[in-house]
Amino acid sequence: MQTADNIFGYRKFWAQRYGVAPQLPMSQAEMDALGWDSCDIILVTGDAYVDHPSFGMAVIGRVLEAQGFRVGIISQPDWQSAEDFRRLGRPNLFFGVTGGNMDSMVNRYTSDRKIRSNDAYTPDGEGGKRPDRAVNVYSHRCREAFKNVPIIVGGIEASLRRIAHYDYWQDKVRKSILLDSKADLLVYGNAERQIVEIAHRLATGEAIADLKGIRGTVHFVKQIPQGWLEKDSSDVDQIGKITPHSNPYQELPDCEKKTENTDQQEKVIQFQRHIPNKQRAQTVIRLPDYEKVKDDPVLYAHASRVMHSETNPGNARALIQRHGNRQVWINPPPIPLTTPEMDGVFGLDYSRLPHKDYGQANIPAFEMIQHSVNIMRGCFGGCTFCSITEHEGRIIQSRSEDSIIKEIESIRDVSPNFTGHISDLGGPTANMYRLACKDPKIEASCRRLSCVFPGICHNLNTDHTPLIKLYRRARKLPGIKKILIASGLRYDLAAESPEYIKELATHHVGGYLKIAPEHTEQGPLSKMMKPGMGTYYRFKKLFDKYSQAAGKEQYLIPYFIAAHPGTKDEDMLNLAIWLKQNDFRADQVQAFLPSPMSIATSMYHSGLNTLEKVNRKAAEMSIPKGIKQRRLHKAFLRYHDPNNWPILREALKKMGRADLIGNGKQHLIPSYQPKGATDKKSGKVVKPQFRKFKTKYTQENSRKNTRNKKKARQN
User: Fold this and answer.
1) Residue 387: its pLDDT value, please?
2) Residue 422: domain span
3) How many other CB atoms are found less than 10 A from the CB of residue 464?
4) Low-confidence ranges of the chain (pLDDT < 70)
5) Does a cis peptide bond (omega within 30 degrees of 0) precede residue 674?
């Protein structure tokens, strides 16, 4: 893996003399109190400002402050005019713009494109405090407020829209957000490394237009720079031999050999492992133009496949994509932060509280995470419906044990309402802490999209000992009563370490543990890149064993996804049967939401399996797109809800499975409808339906009951 300069190794900017702010200012009055006449950098965010390391703008703001810059925050501004964007004056260096911790469209709309009534990142959960596509709107208003100030967009909303991308809410392919926002530069991923370099270079007088080639950034170019090689991948792969994705390490020595290159292989992008060479670092891959991918789903699938092959910072190449008369240049991902750098980021002077202007208002997202600790970043799971890899990267970035313990002690000593319970020690995945490839050379050259699918790579270190050691040390801290693990757990990895499951079940589960098999059927699971149910049963057996040994009654709560690409009605029916057989009744269900740039989204839009070679003869796969089918798939997950029974009866009859309609334990849904239930299709209250005929036994008992009641009244 390549190395990079320590982000805390720069000479600090002269404004460091002002010291550390109790909280980053959101008004001129606060700036005056700090003795500032201006801000060097102003960060605009769609979230409420919470000075906590789980909130992206707080992290970026504090990291820049640690470099000596004066940083102000404009939180949830009134976007109807530019006036609110002038509240802190003109920034000396740049505006940094983000939609917030969540994509603004995912934040505001459900998977059925309905507007949500609340917003967890807003005081008192109030909805509607940010616009649709907030990054675009905020960027335009910043430009209107101060025309010549550089604008840099970032955060997950910008990160996942860095190239031409399918937009689920408009059902079309949109341009790179760099064009739509009219920003000068885009930073993607966890942006500490690149934003620090950008800030220092701008502070020395460099123009924003001259900041080219910084890893983890996207910008415009007029032409390919001198000395670079362009690899044309503007068309779909030609038919030819390709190393199957399912077994990229069939022969380990191949990882350290160059593959044979024919002229045809050099022309197209093939998903096989390569060791970086001298020319590779100066090679840019030409993606299909925006004008082509917006009208050609096959080309879109191809572009997505190429882009996802260039996510390993150890071997990723730059990408270029033409949008009309402009060209967007996507630099390789940033070099992951080292453990000392991670410790430095999380050890900054956060107040760990919402800004004082919010008073006693409740911010739901803060309430959920205020007593949690993030121990790592990144994910090598590669789930196709998830965008963590595209945003945070596949290399796990872990904090040191001492840094984590120090934060727990800080929560205990500083938080005003701490009761001794740490709500989570985790991150994107709870149990990937300090897990990595056994060989750094193999890690740097690997082209796999996942380290755990279709099976756990034999080069992956799955030792959970450092995590067990962390748990045990944290539990012993004075004043700590309970530490729960609430982050998503990768149970296929956990099953490799029975000792970890024992530790988890004995000490860190509060009765229920949430895990995510996502489905039971191999069809959708193979498109999700998730393990089969055999792994689930293996984990469950160990979890139940150690829970019982600890004298605790504890249960697994599995999560499932409806309407994922590759899912058929029969798959959802089989899942519903499994749920009933195992006596699971889900209160909330998740339907697949095609977030920008994910692999599953490219499947949804193109109808092709982009985990395999893409060409125009590739067979289309099952994609649940229509609202009726999506609602049916959700209804199967909530088979126990009487409101879903009418549409399930109709579907089961069409599927030839009317045998599952009845009133016995072997049936999925009953043949009657209870009073007050509503029809999902019409929204009307359904009249109660009962069986038309009674058995002879029931009729006789009914007569006897009537006679007995008459006698009782006479007496």
Assistant:
1) 86
2) 371-640
3) 25
4) 1, 237-278, 676-715
5) no
Q: What is the pLDDT of residues 387-400, one digit of tens each?
A: 888 899 999 999 99
Do 594 and 683 reside in the same domain of the chain? no
Q: What gap in Å lies between CA 199 and CA 268, rounded to an integer?
A: 38
Residue 86 lies in a domain: yes
pLDDT of residue 682: 55
| DSSP string for 657-690 | -GGGBSSSTT-SB-SSB-TT-B-TTT-PBPPPB-
Output the CA torsion 531→535→536→538 (10° steps): -170
**Site of tokens 């492992």:** 273
CA 341, 346, 349: angle at the middle one, nearest 5?
A: 120
Q: What is the pLDDT of residue 588?
A: 76
425 and 316 in a common domain: no
| Matching residue, tokens 């810059």 | 69
Residue-wise burial string across 398-430, b where 16 or more C-beta atoms lie within 10 A, e elsewhere: bbbbebbbebbeebbeeeeeeeeebbbbbbbbb
Q: Cβ atoms within 10 A of the Cβ of 115, count?
A: 10
Collapsed DSSP state (helix, strand, coil) of residue 56 = helix
CA-closest candidate to residue 60, choices 22, 114, 12, 96: 96
The tens digit of pLDDT for each residue in 226-273 reads 999 999 999 986 544 444 554 544 444 444 333 333 333 333 333 333
Q: Are residues 418 and 516 in the same domain?
A: yes
- Letter for the amino acid at 681? K
Domains of the chain: total: 4
Strands, E assignment, 536-589: 555-562
Of the residues 216, 240, 263, the one at which a domain ends: 216
Structure confidence at residue 710 (pLDDT)? 55
- Note whether 412 and 479 are within 8 A (CB): yes
Place of tokens 């102003």: 42
3 state SS of 126: strand
Q: Residue 128 is which amino acid? A: G
Of 203, 199, 183, nearest to 191 (Cα)?
199
Residue with structure tokens 């009761």? Answer: 419
Q: Are residues 189 and 261 in the same domain?
A: no
**Structure confidence at residue 684 (pLDDT):** 55
Q: How far is 430 from 440, CA to CA, in rounded Å?
A: 23
pLDDT at 44: 98
| Whole-number Å distance between alpha carbons of 193 and 234 | 31
Determine, yes or no, domain membership for 232. yes
Same domain, 198 and 225: no
Report residue 665 as tokens.
Answer: 């334990």
User: DSSP secondary structure string, 184-246?
Assistant: SEEE-SS-HHHHHHHHHHHHTT--GGG--S-TTEEEEESSPPTT-EEEE--SPPPS-----TT
